[in-house]
Amino acid sequence: MHISPGTFIAVGGVVGFSILLLSAVLRWQEKEYGIRTLIFFLLVGLVWSGGRIAYDQNPRSGIALAEIAISQTLLPVLLATLTLSFTGRNRARWWVLGGGSALLLLWVGWYLDVGGVATAILPALPAQISHQWMNDAGYGVIWGAGVAITVMALWQARRMHPQVQYRNRYWYWLGGTAILVVANGLFILQRELFPLAHALMIAGIMIIGYTALNYYPPELALVITRTLKSLTVTIAVSIFVFFALSVAYLMPDWGVPPGAALLWLVAIALGLGVFLPVLARSTERTFGSVLFGKHEDELAVVRAYSQTVKTDWDFYKLSQQALHFILQEIQVERGAIFIVHGDGTRRATVTLAAGAGMQASTNGIFPHNDPWFVHLKTAQTPISRFDLEMLPKFRAVDPDSRAWLEALDADLFVPMVLRQDELVGVLALGAKPGYGRFSQRDLRQLHAVVTQVALDLDKARLFGQLGQVNQKLGELTEEFTTIDRNKTDFISIASHELRTPLTHIHGYASMLLEATAGDLQDPTYLQRVLDGIARGSTRLKQVVDLIFDVSKADYGILNVARHALNLKDVVNNAIEEQSDALEERNHTLIVSGIDQLPKIEGDMVRLVQAVSQLLNNAIKYTPDGGTITITGRFFTENDTDSVELIITDTGIGINPNDHRRIFSKFYRVDDVAFHSTSSVKFKGAGPGLGLPLVKGIAKAHGGDVWVDSPECNEETCPGSQFHFMLPVKAPVEEEPPAVGDDEATKRETRRWTKADIAIIKEKIAKYRQASDDEPPDET
Ligand code: ADP
After folding, report:
1. Could you identify which of 515, 650, 724, 725 might form a hypothetical disulfide with 644, taking C-beta atoms 3.0 to 4.6 angstroms apart as the criterion?
2. What is the pLDDT of residues 150-200, one digit of tens each?
3. pTM of the predicted model, to two decimals?
4. Is 736 helix (H, G, I), strand (E, B) or coil?
5. What residues does ligand 1 touch, defined as CB less than 6 Å away?
6. Residue of the nearest CA to atom 16 in ligand 1?
C-alpha cells in the first residue's frame, strides 16, 4: 500500500468522522435539532475521505475522482441545510436543501457529461472556457452559496439569541466555516498545497460536527487565553534557558573551571525550579484578571452579604434585600426570588417573593415530574436560558410552565435548596451586561449566597409562622379573658339584677309577716305591700326570661314563627312599648321609609322584642331631648331581597373596638360597678343581654344586626346607627328541634354532644316547673 501524506490525512479524516458519526447516531433518540442532517453531512465527509484514500492508491481511478468531486460539492449544500436546522430555521432548510440539490444535479450532469450535453455546449462557449473551468466555476458557485447562507443564518441567529452560550457555539461554527472556505480556496487556486487543503477541510468539518454535537464547547475566549498563557510561559522559559545554556557553553572559552560551570548549571536548574511556577502563576493571574476581573472567594461574598443584609424577620423585606445584594454583586440589572410551595406534592406552585425589573403576573405551576423542576431539585445546579431552550432533557417541560418561564425573560435559574433536598425557592436572573457569561466565579458566589439566603428566608418564614401562632394565642387569650369576664360579670349582674327585685319582695314579705292585725285589715296597706311584691317578681321574671332567651339563642333553639307580617306593625308595636320612656326622656322620634317596605316572613313577638330593645338602648344612651330616627330600606343583594331598619340616635356613641363585643353576652362598655339599673334613665344599663338577644332574633330569621359609630364621647355625642337586617323570604328552615323528639335529637347530635342536650333538657324542665309554680296573677 502506497502511503502518501494525502493518504495519512485522509485516514485521519475517516477515523475522526467515524467517531463523530458514532456519537451522532447514538444520540439519534434524543431528538437533537438537525441530527439527521448532521449524520448525512458526516457520512458525506466519510465517503469523501474514503475516496481520497482510494484515489491515492490508484490515481487513474475515474470512479474515485468522481466520488471525491461529487461528495465535495454536496458538502456545502448540507452545510447550509445543517446550519439552518442548527439555528432553528426548519422551513428555510427544506428550500435550501431542494435548491442546493437541483444545482448539484446540474453540476453533476455537466461534470459527468451526461447525455453528451456538456460536449455539445462547450464549442458554443468562448474559447477560454474549458470543461474544467466550468467544473471549477460551478463548484465555486455552490460553495459560495452554501457559505453565504451559513453565514447569514448564523448572523441572524446571533441577533435572536445574544446569550453567551449561543454566541460561543456560533463562533466555533463560523470558525469551522472559515476554515472550509480557506481549504476550498486552496483546492481551486493552489493545487500544489493539496494535502494542506485536505487537512483544513477535515478540520473544518470536524469543528462543525463537534459543535453541533456539543452544547458547551470550551469558551473560545478561554481557549485563546490559555493558549496565550502557554505561549508566554514557553517563550520566557526558552529565552531564559537559551541564555543560561549559552553562558554554560561559552564558559570553557572564558577559562572558567568545569566545577564552576557545573555549579552554574545547578544554579540554572534551581532558578528554573523557582522561576517557572512563579511565572506560570503570575501570567495566569494577569490573564485571569484581564478576562475575568478580580478574584474574590465565596466566603468573602457571604461575609459581605451578612454585613449588608440586615436580618429582617419580615419575609418579603428580607427577600427584597437579598435580591438587591445579589444583583449588585453579580452585576445584573433584573432578577426575582420565587418561593416554591408544595415541593413533594403533585404540583408545585412558584410565587414571587421579590422582584427587580422582573415580574410574574401569575404563579408558575409545575407538575412534580417537570424536568425543569426536577433538575433544580435533584441536580441542584443552575439552569440557563440556553439549557432550557436547547437541551433535549428540557424539551418535555409542560407548555404552560414553559410559557411562564419564558415570560420572565430570565437568563439563569438558580435553585435555593435547604437541608439537601428541599427546594424552597428559585432565584431568576436577567442577562448580564452585553449578554456576557455567568462566569464560574459568578456561579460559585451565587451558590454560596443563595444557600445563605435560603437559610435566612426559612428562618423568616418560621418566624412569621410563630408570629401567626402568637397572634392566634393573643386572640384566644382575649377570648378566654372575655369568657372569664362574662362569668364575673354574670355573678355581679346576677347579684345586682336579681338581688334588687328580690330585696323588694323580701322587704314587702317581711312587712306582711310583721303586720299587726290592724294592718291586715287596712286595704291601702295591703295594696302597697302586694304592689311591691308584684313589681319585684315581674322584674325578676323579666331578667330570668332574658337570660333564658339568650341562652336559647346561644344554643340555636330560639324558635321563631314564620308569618307574613308588616315591618310597619313591628315598628309601631315597639314604639308603643317604649312610648313612656321616650316621653320621660323628652326624645324626638322620626320614622321614615317603613310604609313602602314589602311584607316579610317572621315572628311578630320576637321582632317587636328586638326593635323595642334597640329603641330602648337608643333612648337610654342618648342625653335628654335627643333625636331618634327609624328608617326603613329595601334592597337586593346576591339575588336576595332584604329589608333593613336603621335606628339612629344622637347619643354617646360606641368605640369601634366595642362594635363586635357589645353583641356578646354580659358585655357592657362601662364598668358593671358603675351602672344604674334602669330601663329609662340616661346610661341606665341592664344585664348586658339585650343586644345578644337582638342578634339571636336576627340570626333566627336569617338576618343580622351590626352597629356603626365613630367613637364613644359623652360630650360631642356622635351617635350610633344600628342596622337590623332581615331577608324578605325566610331562608329554608331547619326543622326546629323539639326537645324529647327522638328524630330531632338525633339530627342535632351532629352539632351538640349528648351532655349539651341533657343540660338543655334539664334547663327547660326547670323553667317549666318554675313557671308552673308561679302564682297565676303577677300584676
Ligand atoms: P344593656 O342591658 O347593658 O343595655 P345591651 O346588650 O343592650 O346591654 O348593650 C350592651 C352595651 O352596648 C351597653 O351597655 C352599652 O354600653 C352599649 N350600647 C348599646 N346600645 C347603645 C347605643 N344606642 N348607644 C351607645 N351605646 C350603646
Report:
1. 725
2. 999 999 998 888 777 788 889 999 999 999 999 988 887 877 778 888 899
3. 0.50
4. coil
5. 617-618, 621, 649, 651-652, 654, 662, 668-669, 685-691, 720
6. 669
